[in-house]
Each structure stands twice: as C-alpha cells, then as structure tokens.
Design goal:
The protein is an all-alpha fold and 303 residues long. The chain is built from 15 helices and no strands. Helix 3 crosses helix 10 and helix 11 packs across helix 12. The longest helix is centred in the middle third of the chain and has 27 residues. The chain is globular and about 65 Å long. It starts with a helix and ends with a helix.
Length: 303
C-alpha cells in the first residue's frame, strides 16, 4: 500500500485538486448561479501562494490567497448581481480572461509568459487528502437538507424562493463566494504540488475541465463532483493507447453524457438504486371489496 502511494503520489494529488475544482463548479450550478469564475480565482490564489511561499510558511500563504479571493469574489458578485444565466457565464469568463491577461503581462510579479518555476513542492499527499476531505465536508454541510432545498429553489424559480422567505440576494452572493474560495484552494494545492505555474493554467482549458468533471459526475450532489474528478484523473491512463485522439474521446464522452445522461453518473446510480428498492418493496395488500347497504327511507316505505 505504501509503495502504491509513493508510485502514484502526483496522480493522487491531482485527483484531490480536481475534486476541489469540481466542487467549486458543482456548488454554483446546483444553485442555478451560472458562474465560471472559479478558474480565475484558481489563478489568483495559485500565484499568491507561489509567491508568498518563498517568503512565509506555506499554510499562511494559502490562507492569504483564500482571503484575497474571498474579498475579490464578494466584490465581483456585487458587480454582476443583476446578470443571470448565459450573461452571468459570459461575465465570469471575461473575468477569467482578465486574470490570464494580467498574469501574461505583469512580468515582474508573475513571470509573464514563462510563469513561475521553483515553487516549493511542500504539498504532501496526506495534506492534499485532508484539504479535499475538508472541502467535501464543507460542501456536504452547505448542501444539507435545508441548504440543498434553498439551492434547488433558487435554481428552479427565484421569485417563488423569494415568496417562501429565502433571501435570494444573499444566497447568490454567498454561493458565488463559496465557489470562488473552493476554486482558490484548488489553485493553491496545484501550485504547491507541481512546483511550476503558468498564466494559461487558469485559462479556458481549466473552465472546460471543471465543467467536464461536473457533467460526467452530476450536478445534484457533491458525490457527482468526486466521481467526475476520479474519471477525469484516471481516463488518460485508461485511454492512453489512443494517444493524439484523447481530446476526441473526451469530446465524444461529454456529448454522450449530455444527450443520454444529463443527470450524470451519480444521477444514473440514484435511478438504478431507486428501481432496485421499488422491486424489493412488497406489494401493498389489496383492500377487500365492501358491500354498501342501503338503509330504506320513509319515502321508500310510502311507495
């Protein structure tokens, strides 16, 4: 077991990072807040952690990166508060492109197109697993029974949610910020695991990766993000024989899932489990037929 962990150390760290990234996308999609800004905050926190780790202890560097992203996401959420659906998605993608542009051109700080090398690789596998478990527990608590119902109500019908007493404005802001912090944590984990960081690491490819994780796993629960992250991490090993056709396989897999299983793998598992339970339940006893006795009235006696 120890030998297996040592041989697959970087692979398992990547899995933990993808789990946190998938959670950041799943949180907003379940609530109907079509935000893709977690990729931009991934980059902000990754660069912050990479730079500060050379000056201060790495846990403090991660904490500062998360705090910066939390404050910036709150401000961005207020600026985009009136946007919904596709317009919100385009606004957050523009934010991601802005982060990439700053990373490309702020050469004295970010290293420009070359990025940053020699980042201390201090993220151990136990620490990576611990952070991923903490993120999963936080999302599970966030999407507990009441929280999950609030998110579903916000996604399904916002005016109805408001009529039920849900403060949809605060809920949207909080969901946006929570997603940003999760994306930021994933970026810090990546920087301290790989030791290198480039401006395009937080670009559009990262947005596609996050959406792929959620589409494959499912948006209804944090379990879907974990399943999707596992598939995305292991799929390159499973289909390594196709080599240059890997992207084509990814695309076909996503198309198949969107058309035939839009609820994701976790949704399919839930449906199958529901059918199995329905078959195991005993048939309800049929109530015996009753005979109605008509009591004669005075009118019947007169006739």
């Amino acid at each position: 077991m120890i030998e297996f962990l040592q041989q697959n150390d970087l692979l398992l760290k990547t899995l933990m990072m993808y789990i946190v990234l998938g959670l950041s996308v799943q949180v907003v999609l379940r609530a109907g807040v079509f935000s893709l800004a977690s990729a931009g905050f991934w980059g902000i926190s990754a660069y912050t952690t990479a730079i500060l780790t050379k000056l201060i202890p790495w846990p403090l560097a991660i904490l500062i990166g998360l705090l910066i992203c939390a404050a910036a996401s709150g401000l961005l959420a207020l600026l985009l508060t009136r946007l919904r659906g596709l317009y919100l998605g385009m606004g957050t993608i523009a934010f991601n492109l802005l982060v990439v542009a700053v990373a490309l051109n702020w050469t004295p700080v970010t290293g420009g197109p070359s990025g940053i090398f020699g980042i201390p690789m201090v993220m151990s596998l136990p620490t990576s697993i611990g952070l991923a478990v903490l993120a999963v527990a936080s999302v599970a608590l966030w999407q507990s029974r009441s929280g999950g119902r609030f998110a579903d109500a916000l996604r399904t019908d916002e005016p109805l949610a408001m009529s039920l007493g849900i403060d949809t404005f605060k809920l949207r802001i909080a969901t946006f910020m929570f997603s940003a912090v999760l994306g930021a944590l994933s970026g810090s984990m990546s920087a301290l695991s790989y030791g290198v960081l480039g401006p395009n690491d937080s670009g559009f490819s990262l947005v596609v990766m996050g959406l792929t994780i959620v589409v494959l796993g499912g948006t209804s629960s944090w379990v879907g993000a974990v399943i999707g992250a596992f598939i995305v991490t292991m799929l390159p090993r499973w289909i390594g024989f196709v080599r240059e056709w890997t992207d084509v396989v990814y695309g076909l897999l996503i198309i198949i899932m969107v058309i035939f299983a839009p609820q994701g793998i976790w949704g399919i598992i839930q449906q199958l489990w529901h059918r199995v339970r329905q078959r195991k339940l005993p048939d309800a006893p049929v109530a015996p037929a009753t005979t109605t006795i008509r009591v004669p009235t005075k009118r019947d006696q007169r006739s």
